[in-house]
């Protein structure tokens, strides 16, 4: 891998690989209160939260110098369980194929931290949490967030864990956006930043997708102005529709054709009705229903809005960044930016823009477009070329730092 280069794909790189090693095994999600009334969290907006709990997991061991840590930033509907399985569960963490002994994020050598986002619904404080000032759930009284707020909370978690400086921050999709924000605002926190299938700012089309999803949730009668739990209801219909629509954007036309084509769900003869006749319809229904068991509608509203407003390079001239990246230059943070050729939610132009601006700012950047038929969701899959690239980047980071 060459700093400042664009690495081209080869025809054999679309194959799915088999994860190396046994994985991290049984894991436990921990929870810690990082901010309280005596030390409240002040958000970018100026609003404050007097109690902030964070759910997190760790894999591997932190070295004596505290320099072998890798922070995993999750995507929109992810959580702290990035790898391994919880006791009594067969479901592995959402990035289990990437993290573990001998895997690209190698826990034989690295201390890996994964944490749920502020505003989330998997153990970290969010709109479904209790507002200590009222004794009720926040609901829509929860303050709006910005990407920088995610960073502030996760920096506090690293301090709690005794991590002095990250070897790398790694994230895909929304997680990649957080990595970019973190590397630009606090470059002294990390030596390497790995940004995957992400964007420095959403297009109008992406904002439109999220707007329709939010409207589906808000217009569901069960939403009850955000007080659905108090009301004994839940916007299941709206949330499932939001998930179904979003899931379409995470896949590619090639991937859908390969997986489903025009196959019927349970018959060779079409029914000429409005049920789930086609396999792809049944699949989307399943995705929408399954989502209801693990995600909260308010978190969906809040986290998608953070993505809408994110604009990493808003205050600089993209072609002439000047001294905008002086702190990053001084810190020496190195970047790797990856995209997938069939991702149309955050197509390669989004990643190229990130790499272009960073290079113009005289920062060391490696960019690569990975061939894959699976669209945006490719960042979750064990694609050989993709995993090989991450492995090489992190091994080089270890050679330079450890």
Describe the structure.
The protein has 402 residues and is of the alpha/beta class. The protein has 2 domains: 6-202 and 311-401, Rossmann fold (3-Layer(aba) Sandwich); 206-305, Rna Polymerase Sigma Factor, Chain: A. The protein has 11 helices and 17 strands. The strands form 5 sheets. A 9-stranded mixed β-sheet has the order 1-17-16-15-14-7-11-6-3, sandwiched between helices. Strands 2-8 form a two-stranded parallel sheet. Strands 4-5 form a two-stranded antiparallel sheet. Strand 4 and strand 5 form a beta hairpin. Helix 1 (147-161) crosses helix 2, helix 3 packs antiparallel against helix 5 (236-250) and helix 5 (236-250) packs across helix 7 (279-291). The protein is globular and about 65 Å long. Mean pLDDT is 93; it is low at 1-13.
């Amino acid at each position: 891998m060459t700093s400042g280069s664009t690495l081209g794909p080869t025809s054999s790189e679309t194959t799915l690989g088999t994860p190396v090693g046994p994985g991290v095994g049984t894991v436990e999600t921990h929870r810690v209160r990082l901010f309280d009334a005596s030390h409240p969290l002040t958000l970018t907006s100026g609003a404050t939260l007097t109690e902030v709990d964070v759910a997190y997991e760790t894999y591997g061991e932190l070295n004596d110098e505290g320099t072998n840590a890798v922070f995993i930033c999750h995507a929109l509907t992810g959580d702290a369980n990035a790898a391994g399985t919880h006791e009594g569960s067969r479901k592995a963490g959402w990035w289990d194929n990437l993290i573990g002994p001998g895997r690209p994020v190698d826990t034989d050598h690295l201390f890996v931290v994964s944490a749920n986002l502020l505003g989330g619904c998997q153990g970290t404080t969010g709109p479904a949490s209790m507002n200590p000032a009222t004794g009720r759930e926040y609901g829509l009284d929860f303050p709006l967030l910005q990407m920088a707020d995610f960073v502030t909370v996760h920096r506090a978690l690293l301090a709690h864990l005794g991590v002095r400086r990250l070897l790398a921050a790694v994230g895909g999709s929304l997680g990649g956006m957080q990595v970019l924000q973190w590397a630009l605002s606090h470059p002294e926190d990390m030596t390497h930043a790995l940004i995957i299938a992400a964007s420095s700012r959403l297009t109008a089309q992406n904002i439109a997708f999220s707007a329709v999803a939010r409207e589906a949730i808000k217009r569901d009668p069960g939403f009850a102005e955000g007080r659905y739990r108090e009301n004994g209801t839940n916007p299941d219909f709206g949330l499932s529709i939001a998930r179904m629509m979003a899931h379409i954007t995470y896949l590619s036309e090639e991937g859908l054709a390969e997986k489903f084509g025009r196959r019927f769900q349970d018959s060779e003869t079409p029914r000429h009705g409005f049920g789930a006749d086609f396999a792809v319809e049944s699949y989307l229904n399943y995705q929408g229903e399954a989502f209801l068991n693990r995600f909260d509608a308010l978190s969906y509203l809040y986290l998608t809005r953070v993505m809408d407003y994110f604009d990493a390079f808003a205050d600089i001239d993209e072609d002439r960044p000047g001294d905008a990246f002086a702190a990053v230059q001084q810190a020496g943070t190195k970047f790797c930016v990856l995209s997938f050729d069939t991702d149309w939610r955050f197509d390669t132009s989004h990643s190229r823009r990130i790499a272009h601006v960073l290079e113009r700012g005289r920062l060391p950047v490696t960019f690569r477009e990975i061939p894959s038929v699976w669209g945006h969701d490719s960042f979750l899959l064990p694609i050989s070329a993709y995993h090989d690239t991450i492995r090489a980047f992190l091994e080089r980071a270890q050679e330079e730092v450890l």
